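Hi X.,

You mentioned you wanted examples for the new student's onboarding notes, showing what a folding record looks like when two proteins sit in one file. Here is a clean example. The first protein comes first, with its sequence line followed by its structure tokens.
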Amino acid sequence: MNWKNSSILLFLIALLASCGNNESDQLENNFTISGKIEGGGSKRMYLEAMSADGTIDVAQTETNADGTFKLVGNVPELGIYQLRLGEDEYHILPLPLSPGENIKLETSYDEYSVLPKFSGASWAKPLNKYMSIFNTFAEKQSQLARENNGQMTEEQMLEKYIEFRKPLDEFAKEQMLKDLGNPVNLLLVTSLSPSLGFPKWDPSNLELYEKVKNGFITAHPNSVLADNMNEQYEQLRMGYEQFLAYEKTQNESNTSPEIALKNPEGKLIKLSDLRGKFVLIDFWASWCGPCRRENPNVVRLYNKYKSKDFTVFSVSLDQTAEAWKGAILADGLIWPYHVSDLKAWDTPLTQVYGFNSIPHTVLLDKQGKVIARNLRGESLEQKLKEIL
């Protein structure tokens, strides 16, 4: 299950949004969003914030029959909010809204989530441009997927992805440098992240990221989102340092990097404690359908080879202990080595181990050295037959 298949913008909303207030109707209104949605008459419109507990309703209204609307409400501070039209998940717009802003929006129902025309704020024009370029990028990707029919290799597809995305990243970098404190940078900064992993990442992005976050902190010194951006920068910096250390380790000894995390009972478990056994590191999550479908095969192979010094070290990319524990029980994952930092895709292990989709596996020998990667199904069983 590849996280990149999800909308980048919606991912950002969940990652960066500040908590809203579901009692905004009891507070004095401090923002207005108005305009017209051609073909979008008589539909409910919602301004929402995302939090760890889910979507929070900030304000709502209904568009008039001709698509005109006016939405008012109260936001506590600058935040990335989502403006949703109707009840589906396709008509959603991100916007970095602040108290005191009077925003205008002109678009159509069909182009609502791809070609909006915002005005009334410093972030409006760059966001319009960014989403227009993003729409072109997404269309080229979709066309390539439709027309490829398996003719291109994975590497060729990757090269096309990089080619298609280049104008988006170039615009984002130019815009961020032009106005370091602009709230739109909360969205544009994703162009500096290693979406394809550190091996294909330009490390100069780290220096630019530092400039952007410092400029944003200067412009918004007491903002929760300024703190979030600083935290994300630190995660990126540490992730890159861990990647470099991993590369050095791989070049020198091919030894798997250490993993030291807590199990469901809160006990610290170290991967290095399993030296002397053949170990399958299995990166998975309760919400990952392909992972759950592969679990019966992993259980079968564990039962078949556990008497031959083979075990499984499961690393969950879950966010809640309840979902993680429930999936372990439901899928009968009976080996004793289950760990997680409950950070989902924010875990630094994705960069340390160089993967961006799950399930992902790493097979180790008794000295902790890597034998093979990303084996599952028949290929995993065949490799275990060879070594055990």
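Then the second protein repeats the pattern, sequence line and then tokens:
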Amino acid sequence: MADRILTTHVGSLPRPAKLIEFIHQRTAGDKFDEAAFDQELKGAVTDVVRQQKDAGVDLINDGEFAHTMGWAYDYGSWWSYVVRRLSGVEIIKTGLWMTTLSAHTKTPMAPKDFVVGDWHDRRDMSKFQEAYMDPQSGCGLPEQFMTEHSPVVTGPIKYRGQEAIKRDIANLKVGLKAAGIEGGWMNSVAPASCARMPNEYYKSEEELLYACADAMHEEYKAIIDAGLTVQLDDPAIGENWDQQKKEPSVEGYRRYTKMCIDALNHSIKGLPSDKIRFHLCWGSWHGPHTTDIPMKHLVDLMLAVNAGFYSFEAANVRHEHEWKLWKTAKLPAGKKILPGVVSHSTNLIEDPELVADRIIRFAEAVGRDNVIASTDCGLGGRVHPQIAWAKLKTLSQGAALASKQLWH
């Protein structure tokens, strides 16, 4: 057991320009040199592992470098990478952000009292339409894979990313060995977030959800079998609430979310919970987020995931006050929380004393041994690289300050 607060982050880290150029070429359908990309990727992962260690991060990943971030600012790479790893999914030249999902969806959603809406149905975007449509406001979505493309489910979903995940695991292990680090973790999209695609094949959303769960089990198992920890990224659990023209009932949303959690637990059945991290957020875009569902309606559902670690936003100004929930929330024995104590949502660099204060709040609520200091969401593609690395540095500095108070 550590005698201090350990540090980690949510996953995405700033990519080198050359790596972004490679992935943009592949996304755009240009001539692509797979061997040259693999070589560039391997070196980039080794470098980012070292950079994390230098910044004082304890629990380290590959920065999600193999995920398809073809632009310097990209909110979708945590999810869009999986499209290339699934059969039964076709890419169409219609932007997912600007088209209605229902136009490409033949099947009804379930349960009946909650329907997943279209991307442009977000209530926050409707309330602040002028800001979101202004490219200079900081709210507008940056160009990314989903600007001009949309995946559509046209056949049975099966996992076909075996070689890709094998490569990713090997690259991370090379980087960890070079840095003298034991262990590591990798991101993978959770079933509910994976299943947020227009569907022309499955009879119901639940059927699509479980198809994604069965397919993604292969990726989760491969990561764990390699001796690494898997993080299941599932923003859908929080941000589906905003994706309705009218605010749904809390009861209906919770029933729908329970179905998503059940499918997630199905996807990790038989896998050791102490090798699984679960990440919940409300999306990483830089908007007002006035229509985020409060954490109080999600915390028990999150803790129902059969994971050993729970990661969630707790540093941005929309959710920081929710740390008080942990005074009464019952954290299962042996589980740990990874609250965000620095945020991707602002260019301001948090003062180490503020970071320490945030950590101490959680430590006093659930016990110091049950807290690992993290970020709200991925930093890569959300803030400038110089700012991202400064945030990780202040994270480690704040954790050191908190440790002195909590252990000495």
